[in-house]
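User: Good morning. I'm curious how SGN would be positioned relative to this chain. Could you predict the structure with it bound?
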Amino acid sequence: MLFCKIYNRLFINLLIFTFSILFLISCSSKSGTQKSSDNKKPNVVFIMADDHAYQAISAYGSPLAKLAPTPNIDRIAQNGMLMNAAYCTNSICGPSRASILTGNYSHVNGFFKNEGGGDFNSDLQTFPKIFQKNNYQTAIVGKWHLGTEPKGFDYSKVLVNWWGQGTYYHPQFCINGKDTVTEPKRHSTKVIEDDCIAWLNQRDTTKPFLLMYQFKAPHRDWVPDSMYKDLFDGVEFPEPATFNDDYKGRLAASENMMEIENHLNRRDLKQIVPDSLSGRDSIKWLIHGDQGQYWSPNDSLAGQELKKWKYQTYIKNYLKCIAGVDRAVGRLLDYLEENNLSENTIVVYTSDQGFYLGEHGWFDKRWMYEESFKMPFLIQYPKMIKPGNLSNKFILNVDFAPTLLDFADLEIPKDMQGKSFKNMFADSNYINHEEIYYHYYEYPKWHKVQPHYGIRTSRYKLIHYYYSMDEWELFDLTSDPNEINNIFKISDKSLIDSLKNKLKKLQILYNDNQNLDKMKSLTDTIIKRSYRGI
Ligand code: SGN
Ligand code: CA
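Assistant: Good morning! Here's the predicted structure, ligand included:
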């Protein structure tokens, strides 16, 4: 009996001991997993469209986007933050991309222009190179448009035809700087989408990754996937408030060649070449309109009605291109969720610059006016960014590189001019820039936009057009958010002096305090771009 009691006690003690040990083991293995996942480097998916205006993203709340919502791109803001004051430093494709990669302004990385701007110096330090050196798997798929072969990527598949712009159908891609392939069937957005998912599927899952997922869409000449042929049938998109801008008091703007009414060509608006024309003649027929030549699709359409028709045709094709991008973004987000990657992956959605969707009567970009200066920027990273956030604080495209390096806990090189905005996610009062500096160089091709530099503060914007004119513009963005009334000539001298002073300080800070002749020579220097299409 006594033996039994002792035996029972021993048995119970043994059980308690065994369970305690098992409990401790399970706790320690749990905290072990926790620790290792805390220490795990984040993955980065950097999604960039080409010429995607923030006005065409429903999360930004514009009237257009209500009729053409972007539910998947919006998901990124719902899961993280919508940055409502992201700006580029030179509103044009290659230069903005070069600034994003290097974290430096155009005058520092040497890539000022697309047209006659030569190739990007591939020896420069870029953030993908730093990720790659630090054990990240790196890939870029889609639009590159910098001439030279992409460096810093384990895998690259970039568009090379149409002078590096790529085409929507039959796009040509160069793979790893070697093989050039032509896609026979799929729309470029679909090819890029499928390729990114394929790359994610074959990656080494023991390593973190950086994927640059870069669409051609919705760049000119706005050819949507045929699956969206009927989207927006019967829809009439509202014209923006400045659709009939007369450019009064803004000499540079009055000389532009990017008006919906006067500079969209037949190809842009999907006119069918007459059977009697072929070869060069058909191309000539299609680009008719570029230089301001008058054309109409039929004899009865003229004047304001013609302008309205051009706008509806343009905007519908543009937004159909975006429908494809939105679908591709949704597939990527689903992939991350299904593969348990969302929590530890930073997803960014942006565009190389903004774009005009009829504001000031325009298409295209380049100006320091809001629609082309401001970029969409949405970011999710559940580990560090609370869902459903909004920021109205300035960030610049040169800040993207240092911020992503900062998130990955990699050292930010001292010679990057951009500043990490990681602190903004923890502290909503954190200010990365009190005011921001801009400089654009390409002239006259395309669209005849005078080279200019300027400063934007939270209230004012001061711009100097210096190339073949000496004109200043000043806008009070509080009373004139559409930038119609140039108040430079009627403003107090003290206001102008204080803004010019701040502008000079930024030029000194960024080492762009050169004389105007030197600036003009950058516009005049023509260097050919290499081209690898077949
Ligand atoms: C092409 C377009 C222009 C556009 C530039 C730059 N013309 O040349 O309208 O401004 O690209 O765009 S097109 O008839 O060839 O489409 S960028 O995005 O590369 O900067
Ligand atoms: Ca672009």
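The two ends are 95 Å apart (CA to CA). Confidence is low (pLDDT under 50) at residues 1-7, 17-38.
Let me know if you'd like a different ligand tried.
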